[in-house]
Amino acid sequence: MIVPARDPRGHAQPNIDHSLSDLSPRFWVLAVATGVAAGVGAIAMMAVLRTVQHLAFSYHTGQYSHAAAAHSDLRRVLILAGGGVIAGLGWWLIRRYLGGTGGSPTKAVWTGTDDLSVRNTLISGALSEVVIGMGASLGREAAPQHTGAAAGAWLARRFALPDQQRMLLIACGAGAGVGSVYNVPLAGALFAAELYLGSLSLATIAPALVTAAVATLVGWTVLPIHAIYNVPTLGFPSASLLVWALLVGPLLGLAAAAFVRMIGWAADHRPTGGWRLAATPPAAFTLLGVAAIGYPLLLGNGRDLAEFAFRGGGTLATLAALAALKPLMTTLCLRSGATGGLFTPTMSLGAVLGALLGHVWALLWPGAGATAYAIIGAGAMLAAGMQAPVTAVAFTIELTNSVNASIVAIVLAAGGAMLVARLLESRSIYSARLPKGTAGTPAAASDTAHARRRHRPAPPRTTPPRPTRREAM
């Protein structure tokens, strides 16, 4: 519960709390510095990704899947198999000789234990972008997200910020990395506040906005300045589309809950060391390469797949096959021990499912285009998969530049999807990847708890602290 601040006339506004004034000028300087670091990190990681994509499939512009499809089936399979070898050997070396991949920002914030390493995060992030550039079915945003978070953690430690502000800066850095790489500063800030911190009060959203804005400005020097998806403008939602949004939301919530459970299973059963860590990725990536012979859209993070659905591509049979194969391939890559993001794979799955269900609905009650079905499906799947509806809607409208009356249909579907997913599965695509027993409640979610901790003396420690070990994520 948020503790409201009262103005001199005695009125209270619930989203205003005293902790905003506790943020010192030093914190704001470090927030700006974290934004700069997150933006530079996003540029560096995208440079690695694009270089590998060019070397693997001569990719320059346009759709990555088209560039891959222009080469022989044998080349695609061999490239994926080679990516698996690099992934297995690389992560085995990182875990054996560096002690881990740099730590998990979500775990750091949600448990209040900061064990993030800038060096390991940069190395592991670059390796993640290499294998995604070679076709792994994982999101490219994880490396910039972790880089921004690790930069925030290092700055907070270097300048001795209090624990609460350190967790806040880590979350802001993570959101700034995502905002910069996708050119979505508002969604990046909400990602930090709603998903990481569990609060949309001024004390969380204000620094998150500053950090994400700075990171996006830095990214503009190199990264694209337009919306990621170039899709047709949506019209005013028809009665048919609004009814469909109400009905399809629960179905997408069911799909999201199933996907989250698949992610949780993959995280719980991935190899953590030994020969399995080196041998499993080549086998998994080779299977992905074989599947991509018939469906090149399975390659990469899913951006091409989402745009394919947004533009109305594919028959019912093609959409059904892609909707079944994409989550399987993503789960397979995670199960092999590879690391990467889940944001775009989740969004692309929602887009394809939305397009598929929209095709069927159009036979019963025409009145909307394929683009609307896919965009609504993407937003609903994100809301249910992330368990962060405000952030999901912001991502959807910023990524597709669909800021108009269609947002009503997006919100209707997102609400239904999130509620059903929450009933069936309490975890999100992020918390499902954490080790069993990890607390799932944001460390900074309760301003009341913060206020109590500021005035309550710490209990005496009866046992010496146990050293933490960097979590391999």
Description:
The structure is a single chain. This protein is an all-alpha fold. It has helices at 25-57, 64-69, 73-98, 105-111, 118-133, 142-158, 163-182, 185-196, 202-219, 239-269, 274-294, 303-310, 316-335, 343-364, 370-386, 389-400, 407-424, 447-455; strands at residues 4-6, 12-17. A hairpin with a 5-residue loop joins strand 1 and strand 2 (12-17). Helix 7 packs antiparallel against helix 8 (185-196), helix 10 (239-269) packs antiparallel against helix 14 and helix 14 packs across helix 15. It is globular. It starts with a strand and ends in an 18-residue tail after the last helix. The model is unreliable at 440-473 (pLDDT under 50).
Order of helices and strands: EEHHHHHHHHHHHHHHHHHH
The amount of beta strand, in percent, is under 5%
Number of helices: 18
| Uncertain ranges | 440-473
Overall number of strands: 2
Main sheet record: 2 strands, antiparallel
How far apart, in Å, are the first and last alpha carbons?
31 Å
In percent, how helical is the residue content? 55-70%
Overall body shape? globular
Spatially, the strands of the biggest sheet line up as 1-2
Structural class by SSE content: mainly alpha
